[in-house]
């Protein structure tokens, strides 16, 4: 596609601003390179967004191929080099048509190649280059080396090659889309668990000597003290796996049976940070954009650990124009680096705390401050002062729902009138698993069943439900590892602090009263949002109950 058209199209689609395009063209003048690649490296647009623009241009469908395991039989009809060179991957086959995800839908050679190699017609969908190459790498890796069997074989050998074993465990975790690897010693041997889409799963049992050498290997790679086995340690390492870079955060703690290690895999893929991809619906997105556009006030995201709060705030950062506004962040730790944003990491040990960072920031002429977490009185006080003196502050708290952030702020000794005037919005969120698009079934509901989930069939509009509709059911297939679910989406509730609610805060209304007032004005609760997503076929009632129903 013509470069200028790509830029204009991205602007039209709301992914890019005119000013960002100008900066990218300036960069291109001094650094040469494709405009699309420059836009991605400046984090102005993600690979997926660029790809959506290309799809629109070609009048083809965009497909997110993360988590799709292409049909092995189809893959075998091609060789890895052809797929990598021409940048496409077969997905599945219906009748005499084979669905292909390609980075360049204008490349007529792809359909020819598919016909020549398979004798089938190609239906071309569009996906981004990075995820196609990654998917090709992973698919052929799994065809050539059944990694799971390899690990089982390696752990049962006394003379096992530990570096190779660890490498295979991490690769296996990536192919399973895991975010965490747990290596946990028990009374007999040790166990390796993976967490995918928030759910832990036991994967391998390993003998004690192998456990000890794995822990040592992890410590060497992340520059931890091998000799120290009685104190917790934290470290990190960077690896490149299947054409994608990962930061791996490592934490070890001593337990009764030896050291327990947790490896958190952080992908550097910008596509994750998008309010649209996270699954916020249009109304919530508009409210969020309104909050982010304000010059001052504090916006809070609440939820337990692992509810995607950081991802939401990072998506917010992408929507805040860092070319026009000076953005500073203080985080623990920095999980993703954004150009044009000044990010710092707290270091409690050396005395660099959230509160000291906030104080220093206010002398750095900021417009927007992202504060990783509000957990102590001092930090909360400075953040609130910053919010009412002309700064936009984005932060997180650990509360169960939106409205309980208010008593939590009062606990942190923030005066009620400051909360009323300073807080511009509070959003609570959770992540729920999406049903697998390849195997999801349907089941018919009835009033009794809906009632068992706390849904009153007399108020269908609120949940988008009626007592005789078909709702998704989790089954299980090879794409989703038999779980019936693949990927996650957000469910949220957004409390707008309008004048009436500000008044209620000053008059010490209870959280229940404030909640009732917001609901009476149309606020959807997290559970409501969840049921709506089930009604739309995205997730299941069981999943909403697991995550959000109290
Ligand atoms: Zn499935």
Describe this structure in words.
- The protein is α/β, with parallel strands linked by helices.
- The protein has three domains: 67-144, Type II secretion system, protein E, N-terminal domain (GMP Synthetase, Chain A, domain 3), CATH 3.30.300.160; 145-267, Beta-Lactamase, CATH 3.30.450.90; 273-433 and 488-523, P-loop containing nucleotide triphosphate hydrolases (Rossmann fold, 3-Layer(aba) Sandwich), CATH 3.40.50.
- Helix content is 41%, strand content 24%.
- The protein is built from 24 helices and 18 strands.
- The strands form four sheets. A seven-stranded mixed beta sheet has the order 12-11-13-14-10-15-18, sandwiched between helices.
- Strand 4 and strand 5 form a beta hairpin.
- The model has no long low-confidence stretch (mean pLDDT 91).
- Zinc ion binds at residues 436, 438-439, 476-477, 479-480, 484.
Cα separation of the termini? 51 Å
Strand segment tally: 18
**What's the overall geometry?**
globular
CATH architecture field of the largest domain: 3-Layer(aba) Sandwich
Structural class: alpha/beta
**Rg over C-alpha atoms, rounded to the nearest angstrom:** 25 Å
Ligand kinds: zinc ion
């Amino acid at each position: 596609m013509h470069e200028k058209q790509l830029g204009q199209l991205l602007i039209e689609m709301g992914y890019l601003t005119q000013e960002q395009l100008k900066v990218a063209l300036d960069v291109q003048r001094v650094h040469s390179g494709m405009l699309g690649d420059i836009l991605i490296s400046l984090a102005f647009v993600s690979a997926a967004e660029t790809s959506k623009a290309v799809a629109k241009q070609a009048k083809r469908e965009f497909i997110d191929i993360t988590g799709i395991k292409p049909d092995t039989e189809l893959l075998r009809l091609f060789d890895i080099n052809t797929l990598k060179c021409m940048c496409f991957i077969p997905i599945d086959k219906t009748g005499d048509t084979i669905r292909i995800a390609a980075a360049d839908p204008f490349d007529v050679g792809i359909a020819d190649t598919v016909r020549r190699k398979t004798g089938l017609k190609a239906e071309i969908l569009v996906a981004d280059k990075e995820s196609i190459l990654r998917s090709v790498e992973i698919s052929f890796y799994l065809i050539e080396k059944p990694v799971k069997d390899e690990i089982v074989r390696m752990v049962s050998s006394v003379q096992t090659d530990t570096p190779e074993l660890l490498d295979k465990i991490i690769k296996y975790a990536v192919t399973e889309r895991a975010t965490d690897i747990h290596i946990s010693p028990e009374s007999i041997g040790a166990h390796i668990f993976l967490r995918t889409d928030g759910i832990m799963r036991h994967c391998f049992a390993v003998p004690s000597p192998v456990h000890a050498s794995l822990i040592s290997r992890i410590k060497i790679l992340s520059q931890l003290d091998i000799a120290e086995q009685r104190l917790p340690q934290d470290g990190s390492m960077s690896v490149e796996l299947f054409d994608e870079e990962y930061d791996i955060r490592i934490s070890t703690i001593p337990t009764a049976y030896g050291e327990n290690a947790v490896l958190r895999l952080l992908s550097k893929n910008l596509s994750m940070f998008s309010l649209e991809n996270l699954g916020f619906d249009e109304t919530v997105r508009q409210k969020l954009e309104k909050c982010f556009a304000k010059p001052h006030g504090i916006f809070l995201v609440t939820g337990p650990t692992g509810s995607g709060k950081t991802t939401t705030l990072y998506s917010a950062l992408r929507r805040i124009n860092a070319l026009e506004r000076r953005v500073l962040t203080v985080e623990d730790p920095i999980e993703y680096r954004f150009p044009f944003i000044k990010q710092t990491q707290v270091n409690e040990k050396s005395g660099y705390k959230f509160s000291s960072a906030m104080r220093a920031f206010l002398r750095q002429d900021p417009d927007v401050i992202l504060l990783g977490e509000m957990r102590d009185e001092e930090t909360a006080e400075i953040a609130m002062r910053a919010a009412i003196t002309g700064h936009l502050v984005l932060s997180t708290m650990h509360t169960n729902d939106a409205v309980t952030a208010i008593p939590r702020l009062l606990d942190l000794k923030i005066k009620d009138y400051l909360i009323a005037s300073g807080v511009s919005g509070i959003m609570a969120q959770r992540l729920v698993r999406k049903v697998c698009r390849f195997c999801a079934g349907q089941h018919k509901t009835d009033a009794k069943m809906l009632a068992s989930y706390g849904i009153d069939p007399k108020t269908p509009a609120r949940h988008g439900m009626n007592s005789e509709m078909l709702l998704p059911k989790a089954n299980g297939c090879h794409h989703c590892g038999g779980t019936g679910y693949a990927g996650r989406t957000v469910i949220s509730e957004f409390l707008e602090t309008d004048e009436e609610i500000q008044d209620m805060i000053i008059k010490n209304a209870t959280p229940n009263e404030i909640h009732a007032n917001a609901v009476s004005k149309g606020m959807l609760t997290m559970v409501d949002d969840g049921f709506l997503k089930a009604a739309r076929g995205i997730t299941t009632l069981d999943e909403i109950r697991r995550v959000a129903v109290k």
